[in-house]
Amino acid sequence: MLRPAFIVPALLCLAGFTAPSPSLSAQATGSVVAQTPPMGWNSWNYFANKVDDKGVRAAADQIVASGMKDAGYVYVNIDDTWEGQRDANGVLHSNDKFPDMKALADYVHSKGLKLGIYSSPGPKTCAGFEGSLGHEEQDAQLYASWGIDYLKYDLCSYIPAVMEKQAPNDPAAQMHLMHDAYVKMANALRTTGRPIVFSLCQYGWDAPWEWAPELGGNLWRTTGDITPRWDRIYAILSQQEGLEAYAGPGHWNDPDMLEVGNGRLTTAENRSHFSMWAMLAAPLLAGNDLTAMTPEVKGILTNRDVIAIDQDTLGKQASRIYSDGEVEVWTRHLSGGALAVAVLNAGARRYSTHPFHLNLSRLGLHGPQQGKDLWAGTNVTLTDGMPLELATHDIFLVRIPAPK
Ligand code: GLA
Whose CA is nearest to atom 3 of ligand 1? Predict the structure, then answer.
């Protein structure tokens, strides 16, 4: 896992700058993409710098063969390390790992899927490859000519090369420069005329949820990088509280790509991670090796009921309603008046000796509720004070079609 090598701790302390930059030249007018959170796969979490043309084709093949495409996964996203050199005209070429990007896009499209790519507003990407600084329009046109459908734009070297250089010791001015960089690429993408999902990756600095939607950002990272460890996943989850007001059709909070099936996450952890990202209306970008998925991981990633929570057309992100020690209860309002309830045990086991007791009135519910347990796949009746036994890091996820 690479973290941006350029993070300056002082910048992390900044908050409060929200004024739109004067260089904002176009407003988002009804995004046609990302009306529900983007679903697909991204190369970084598992393959990192080992991603290549063959691996991306294999991922596309597996999205179809595994049933993920039928379940809603569409984007096949190449992350960092595809970039080669610029020629004399400034045109960027892919490196040896990607002999023909247009042919790759055609292949992915032939499967009924879409292709995503990655760049940085700086001179270099986080992994030290060629970035887009000074070539924004040219790169956007290149992506469009290849048939790219999604761009993740990662701040990285823009911090030392532009922000710190042009505005030393002036954090507010640095944030303006960051904002300008995202406006520039948003406009360049718009000028291509091709619908391209625009994903901001700047680690949640300066509250992007307050300014990214108006420049045309379809999603914005809210935190630093995820890792396949429960404590990191839970820390990111906790940082989403309070951001629910900013999510909606065309513009989503991005708590980072999925780690389901990676590292040593347990079944319960994979299930809870996936469930909570669905509750958060987060992009569902699988980050595992799809060619070597266990049936269990495949089952989690393709649980249609859970995906339906994520993709609910109302686009309302869940809120944490209350917690009792390390057990917390989140709800998400769904279209048609339905409600999703997640009871997450972020701590140690709750046995029958001291189970968790669900308090329905705190959720605004009155009396017994008929629902579906989305992991057991069975009907369930929720009653006030009902005891729930929860394994460590496991989740109880219920959809109530007609809450009372
Ligand atoms: C940053 C991003 C990651 C990934 C890497 C690639 O760390 O946050 O998601 O894109 O760069 O270098």
Answer: 225
